[in-house]
Amino acid sequence: DGGITQSPKYLFRKEGQNVTLSCEQNLNHDAMYWYRQDPGQGLRLIYYSQIVNDFQKGDIAEGYSVSREKKESFPLTVTSAQKNPTAFYLCASSEAGGNSPLHFGNGTRLTVT
Amino acid sequence: RKEVEQDPGPFNVPEGATVAFNCTYSNSASQSFFWYRQDCRKEPKLLMSVYSSGNEDGRFTAQLNRASQYISLLIRDSKLSDSATYLCVTYNTNAGKSTFGDGTTLTVKP
C-alpha cells in the first residue's frame, strides 16, 4: 500500500541534543512538507520541498533543518537552537500543483526534557 | 490577523443535528481549498475538496465564496462518529504551500 511513514511514533530527548525525525513516502509525490502542531492549535509549516534537492523555509523554520536528497525522503532535524521543541510533528506529501490534497504520516510526538 | 480563520468552537450538538462551520481567508492568491478532519492525537485526513460550484459528499456539503473569501462546511444528520476537529485549509499556488486554520472542534452527543 502506498503511504507516508514517519518514525519513530514517540521520541524522547534531553535538552541540548539534536534529533532527526524520519519521513518516507512511496506515493511518488514531488512535494513534501513538515508541520508542527501544539496542543489545541492548528498546523504550522516548518519547511517544504517542491522538488528533490530544493526546499524552502515555512513560517517557523528557526531551529530546524531539512534535506531532500531523494524524492521519497524528507528528514527533519530539530536542533538545540529550537527553543520549544516539544510538539507533535507531521510530515505530508502531495502531487505537484495546488489541486492535490495533502497526505499525512501518522506523526511523531517529540518530548524534550 | 491569521491568514485562515475559523469559528473557535467547540460545537456540542445532539445526534441528528445539522451543524455548519465557517472559515474565512485573507490571501486572495489562494487557489485551492479543502476541509480536513483530525481525530484526537491523530494526523489530519482529507474530508473533501471545496469547489466554487459547491460540492456534496453524503451528509457533508462544502461551499466556497471567492468574492467574500469564505468557505463553509455543513454536516447534516450528525453522527457520534463525526466528533472531531475540522480544519479549513487553503493552498497558495504562487507560494506552493498550504495554510491551515486552527480548527473547530465538534462533539456530537447521544
Textual characterization of the structure:
- The complex is a heterodimer of chains A (113) and B (110).
- Chain A has strands at residues 4-7, 10-13, 19-25, 31-37, 43-51, 54-57, 64-66, 76-78, 87-94, 103-104, 108-112.
- With 113 residues, chain A is mostly beta strands.
- With 110 residues, chain B is an all-beta fold.
- Helices cover 0% and strands 57% of the residues of chain B.
- In chain B, a hairpin with a 2-residue loop joins strand 6 (55-57) and strand 7 (60-65).
- Chain B is globular.
- Chain B starts with a strand and ends with a strand.
- The model of chain B has no long low-confidence stretch (mean pLDDT 93).
Mean pLDDT over the full residue set of chain B: 93
Distance between the termini of chain A: 36 Å
Radius of gyration of CA atoms of chain A, rounded to a whole number: 13 Å
Largest interface: A-B, 24 and 24 residues
| SS-based class of chain B | mainly beta
Name the structural class of chain A: mainly beta
Residues in helices of chain A, as a percent range: under 10%
- Count of helical segments of chain B? 0
Q: In percent, how much strand structure appears in the residues of chain A?
A: over 45%
Radius of gyration of chain B: 13 Å
What is the number of helical segments of chain A per DSSP (H or I, 4+ residues)? 0
Oligomeric status: heterodimer
What series of H and E elements makes up the topology of chain B?
EEEEEEEEEEE
Task: Tell me the strand percentage band of chain B.
Answer: over 45%
Largest sheet of chain A: 7 strands, mixed
Biggest sheet statistics of chain B? 6 strands, mixed
Distance between the termini of chain B: 36 Å
Stretches of chain B where pLDDT is under 50 for at least 5 consecutive residues are: none
